[in-house]
Design brief:
- The chain has 89 residues and is mainly β.
- It has one helix spanning 2-10, and strands at 17-21, 28-38, 42-45, 59-62, 67-79, 81-86.
- The chain is built from 1 helix and 6 strands.
- The protein is globular and about 35 Å long.
- The two termini are 17 Å apart.
Length: 89
């Protein structure tokens, strides 16, 4: 299972990447996404999206350069810029 997980992670980005700017009018996007990487300190509004993160606070701050992995069906950004890596099915 570990090798399968590593193989999937190494393919991140091959199904597309979308940038979201929290300061733009279009700050919400529908996935699914496998990873989110902060280009600048970003705040995700978990009350307005489906992140799959159990027991998440109303917002999650991601420091610049940090990537979080998971199954994100939608993401709404309150501030910052992120790259959202589409999940391959």
């Amino acid at each position: 299972r570990l090798l399968d997980a590593i193989k999937k992670r190494s393919q991140i980005g091959r199904c597309g990447v979308v940038m979201i700017d929290g300061d733009a009018a279009q700050n919400e996007i529908t996935g699914p996404f496998a990873a989110v990487q902060a280009l600048s300190t970003a705040v995700i509004d978990t009350s307005e999206c489906t992140t799959g993160i159990e027991s998440a606070a109303d917002t999650i701050s991601i420091p610049t350069g940090v990537t979080i992995f998971g199954h994100f069906t939608s993401i709404e950004l309150d501030s910052g810029k992120v790259l959202c890596y589409r999940a391959c099915d």
